[in-house]
Design goal:
612 residues; alpha/beta; Rossmann fold; Aminopeptidase; 3 domains; nine-stranded mixed sheet; five-stranded parallel sheet; 23 helices; 41% helix; 18% strand; globular; HAD-like_sf; SGNH_hydro_sf; Acyl_CoA_acyltransferase
């Protein structure tokens, strides 16, 4: 699409209707490469209400060592494209150091995005014959920045996003000695390496490699005239590159990442059509274009290794496909790599809907990659929350098309992430196992489910914070406790954060639930309770409620109280407290139970370790 009038009209209609842009409009927005169009989109979206259905509200403060300029509008558009609705708070010009030194960021933002240019690190006067002195100054400025950021994190609950800074041409070209140039360049690359290293010091710091990004895109990094005229160091194209990365960080930290990659076979995972070319005629491995398809399989396999669930969606006869998946020497993906295989002649939209039901995941957890414009269009129309990736065109671009948008980004990998593909494959096996029982209760007893519950350990904080961010359906209050807040609660003697893991005859599900509890006198308040959708329908939530009441009784609490705050996405949790034996109180949405007299709500088919 060269004319983006349709896109901007869709955004204006959403603003006028005070609702989120449609998924197809947001996907178009995510594909825009023209910075001017994204600036216009950001201007339009500035009038969108701060809270709208289907967009995750996020408060973002932008602090800059230069003029913020169009970054505000580019960032807003980029964040709406990934499913977030940002409230942007812009730091005043010239107050970057002062704001960090104060130690607290006004407005308690969820995310602080730092826009930095080279003048922050370079002295105004420096000598091209004293590159060692220049290197020492750059290192000292980084040390000051590091100290200010870490001090600020001790007093601010939000996360920080920083970025590497491209090597300035003045630094690169001023020394006329190649040796001096190398020394200066090494100092700058060391600065960027140190910036990237900040992410290893605190889990709430993310560093975007802007310098690396700009080396891979066809945009100029700097505008010398605007830099000197208005202290705007970067071009709109460079700022759009940064805005998209910051938006990806915000999406990952807010639980908006995708979990499932559904992928086609013919002309996607391999070249050619199996039904026409046969196994021997497939293009796979070797020289171009076969190497492109094998490279895509490598990329898909790497995603699976990091926890992305794979679904196969192909219009083919199942027998020949199984033969290729099992025996073809150039196939890198095998049958066991896929949690669900939908190989038949049904509509792919129907197959993907069934796969989502099997995995107990919503369509917006999926990314669908296919070479057919018809199939992509049909899936987008039938399952509007599902992201689609085009696999047609030159196969040399397959890997970039899949990875570039960052659909599956997470702040950091947890053990549960790494186990997720196997966990969901086990879920599919459970679905097949359930067909041989007279009743659902017989099936649940046969699963031999065990609940492992305990206060969160240091090693589990990342997973529990991830559950808080990504769980929407069984999320009782909608309060999201990030890694910093969860860590603080774990250290508070008047608060308890508990994790809940599940295992059964098919294996270990890992941590599937969490509760954040506060002791107010002798009353235990459940601030929030979340449960992964992959264990719905097994009564796990009632076993969790039973454990909480047991612990409260042991602690001498006179009451346990909890709330249910309804939203568009958590209707599955409606009525939970009453079913668990709690009584509605006069306060709207609050339920209580007396631990000393509360009957157990532990399902008979679930056991605690040691109770069997």
């Amino acid at each position: 699409m060269n004319d983006f009038t349709e896109l901007l009209d869709g955004l204006r209609a959403a603003v006028e209707g005070r609702t989120a842009p449609a998924p197809v409009v947001r996907q178009l927005l995510s594909e825009v490469e023209d910075p001017a169009t994204m600036r216009r989109a950001g201007h339009v979206l500035a009038d969108l209400p701060s809270v709208v259905p289907d967009l995750r509200p996020i408060k973002v403060t932008v602090l800059a060592t230069c003029t913020i300029g169009p970054f505000e509008h580019l960032l807003r558009a980029a964040m709406v494209a990934v499913g977030a609705q940002p409230t942007l708070l812009l730091g005043d010009y010239g107050t970057f150091d002062l704001t960090l030194a104060a130690g607290e960021i006004d407005g308690s933002p969820d995310l602080v995005a730092c826009l930095m240019d080279e003048r922050y690190f370079l002295p105004r006067e420096w000598s091209a014959v004293d590159t060692e002195g220049l290197a020492a100054h750059i290192e000292a400025r980084f040390t000051e920045l590091r100290g200010a950021i870490l001090a600020c994190l001790r007093r601010t609950p939000g996360a920080f996003v920083l970025h590497t800074v491209p090597v300035p041409a003045e630094l690169r070209d001023s020394p006329i000695s190649w040796r001096a140039r190398a020394t200066a360049a090494r100092a700058w690359h060391r600065l960027n390496a140190d910036l990237l290293g900040l992410a290893e010091e605190d889990g709430r710091i993310t560093v975007v490699d802007l310098a690396g990004e700009l080396a891979d895109v066809a945009v100029a990094a700097r505008d010398d005239r605007l830099h000197r005229y208005a202290d705007l160091p970067y071009t709109d194209g460079a700022l759009l590159t940064l805005a998209r990365r910051v938006a990806r960080v915000a999406a990952a930290r807010s639980g908006l990442s995708r979990k499932v990659l559904a992928v086609d076979l013919d002309n996607t995972l391999w070249g050619g059509v199996l039904g026409e070319a046969g196994e021997a005629g497939l293009q796979l491995g070797g020289l171009y274009p076969g190497n492109c398809y094998q490279d895509l399989q490598r990329a898909v396999r790497r995603l699976r290794e990091q926890g992305v669930i794979l679904v196969l969606a192909s219009k083919n006869d199942a027998g020949p496909v199984d033969e290729v998946l099992t025996r073809h020497p150039e196939m890198l993906l095998r049958p066991e790599d896929f949690a669900v295989r939908a190989v038949n002649w049904s509509a792919k939209a129907d197959n993907l809907r069934h796969a989502a039901e099997t995995l107990n995941l919503a369509a917006n957890a999926f990314v669908f990659m296919d070479d057919s414009p018809f199939e992509r269009g049909h899936v987008a129309a039938e399952l509007p929350g599902m992201a689609v990736v085009a696999a047609d065109g030159d196969p040399a671009h397959l890997v970039r098309s899949l990875l570039r948008p960052g659909w599956f980004d997470v702040p950091e990998l947890t053990d549960t992430d790494l186990k997720r593909p196997a966990l969901y494959r086990s879920r599919a096996l459970r679905t097949g196992f359930s067909t041989g029982f007279a009743s659902s209760e017989d099936y649940l007893h046969a699963l031999r489910t065990r609940l492992i519950a305990h206060p969160v350990t240091t090693f589990e904080i990342g997973r529990v914070a991830q559950l808080s961010a990504r769980t929407n359906q069984f999320n009782l209050t909608g309060i999201r406790f990030d890694e910093g807040a969860t860590t603080a609660m774990c250290a508070d003697p008047d608060r308890l954060v508990a994790s809940f893991a599940v295992s059964d005859r098919f294996g270990d599900e890992g941590i599937v639930g969490a509760a954040w509890i506060e002791s107010r006198g002798r009353v235990w308040w459940v601030l929030n309770l979340v449960l992964s959708c992959r264990v719905f329908g097994r009564g796990i939530e009632f076993a969790i409620a039973d454990w909480i009441v047991r612990r409260a009784r042991e602690a001498g609490a006179t009451a346990v109280a909890g709330r249910y705050v309804p939203s568009e996405r958590n209707k599955v949790a409606d009525g939970f407290w009453e079913k668990a034996g709690f009584t509605p109180s006069d306060e709207d949405g609050t339920y209580t139970v007396v631990p000393a007299t509360a009957p157990t709500c532990l399902p008979t088919w679930i056991a605690y370790p040691g109770d069997e």
